[in-house]
Design brief:
This protein is an alpha/beta fold and about 300 residues long. The protein has helices spanning about 10-25, 25-35, 35-50, 65-90, 105-110, 115-120, 140, 185-190, 200-210, 225-235, 245-255, 280-290; strands spanning about 55-60, 60-65, 100-105, 125-130, 145-150, 160-170, 195, 220-225, 240-245, 255-260, 265-275. It folds into 3 domains: about 5-75, Winged helix-like DNA-binding domain superfamily/Winged helix DNA-binding domain (Arc Repressor Mutant, subunit A), CATH 1.10.10.10; about 90-165 and about 270-290, D-Maltodextrin-Binding Protein, domain 2 (3-Layer(aba) Sandwich); about 165-265, Periplasmic binding protein-like II (D-Maltodextrin-Binding Protein, domain 2). The strands form 2 sheets. Strands 3, 4, 5, 6, 7, 8, 9, 10 and 11 form a 9-stranded mixed β-sheet that branches. Strands 1-2 form a two-stranded antiparallel ribbon. Helix 1 packs across helix 2 (about 25-35). It is elongated, with a radius of gyration of 25 Å. The N and C termini lie far apart (about 50 Å). About 25% of the residues are buried.
């Protein structure tokens, strides 16, 4: 790397710029970085001098970033996050055997975690760190090596491995209906419906698959995780459209009842996805190759 030294500012000056962009005031920056406001101002002045540009608009003691500095701060934020993640990986696993994985909370706990002891036995040198994420994110911003993703195999700039299809079943509390066998799919469309944020079109797709012509949007209450929507269904708040593997035990214990004979396959599936520029990372390759041996969509889940 032969980058001119003047184009490599100090970490402390870049942290001050990024924090001012994010926090909006020199006072808040000083508190976060454990510096005085004058020290923050000096860091920013050093950066301006090094870049040969005015980056800060000064109005008395108030400091704000110029439009060009705001764009620069956004790019710097990604670089600082990558440096922090790399430093953390070095401290935790100095041999480089670390995989930072984003997981979906319920699927990660119910499908992936029960299988991980085998991976740990086969690859004890690899450390798998996990964080939950419900929505898509930018791999460059968050520093993950891979993610468990639900949807289609269309995440830009990534490779993917199919893990499992999802099959959905309408369920509710036994107290909500007197004769479940007499209910038709059209009857269900008139009942209180429970929706999960990550599957906004699930009910509409289900009714369409059953040949039910809807006259408007499918209304109901919204939940952010399967754990909360399951509790809502158990307490009689409505009918939830659930992955069959998640409600198998509740159905067996009588906490929930199924309102349709057979699950139907959902739009989308579970995938492992990874940035193409990390595809050859040794820890990721070992994890991906092992996970491919577990990716059998019809294989019963461990309980």
């Amino acid at each position: 790397m032969n980058t001119p030294r003047r184009l490599l500012p100090t970490i402390s000056s870049l942290r001050a710029l990024e924090a001012l962009d994010r926090l909006g005031s020199a006072t808040a920056v000083a508190q976060e970085l454990s510096l005085t406001q004058s020290a923050v101002s000096r860091q920013l002045q050093v950066l301006e001098h090094q870049m040969g540009l005015d980056l800060i608009a000064r109005d008395g003691r108030r400091l704000t970033l110029t439009p060009a500095a705001q764009k620069y701060a956004s790019e710097v934020r990604q670089a600082l996050e990558q440096i922090a993640q790399a430093s953390l990986r070095l401290r935790i696993a100095p041999d480089g055997g670390t995989l930072n994985l984003a997981i979906l909370p319920t699927f990660g706990m119910r499908w992936l975690v029960p299988r991980l002891p085998e991976f740990a036995r086969l690859h004890p040198q690899v450390t798998v760190n996990m964080n939950t994420r419900l929505q898509r994110f930018n791999f460059a911003n968050e520093g993950f090596d891979a993610a468990i993703h639900f949807g289609n195999a269309d995440w830009p700039g990534t490779g993917h491995l199919l893990l499992r299809h999802e099959h959905l079943l309408p369920v509710c509390a036994p107290s909500l209906v007197q004769d479940p066998g007499a209910l038709t799919p059209t009857d269900l469309s008139h009942m209180p419906l429970l929706h999960i944020e990550t599957r906004p079109d699930a009910w509409a797709d289900w009714f369409r698959a059953q040949g039910v012509a809807l006259t408007g949007s499918v209304t109901g209450t919204l939940y952010d995780q399967f754990s909360t929507i399951t509790q809502a269904a158990q307490h009689g708040l409505g009918v939830a459209l659930m992955p069959d593997y998640l409600v198998e035990q509740d159905l067996a214990l009588g906490h929930l009842i199924a309102l349709h004979d057979a699950p139907i396959e959902a739009q989308g599936a579970y995938y492992l996805v990874w940035p193409l520029d990390k595809a050859q990372d040794p820890a990721l390759k070992q994890f991906r190759e092992w996970l491919a041996t577990q990716a059998e969509p019809e294989d019963p889940l461990p309980r």
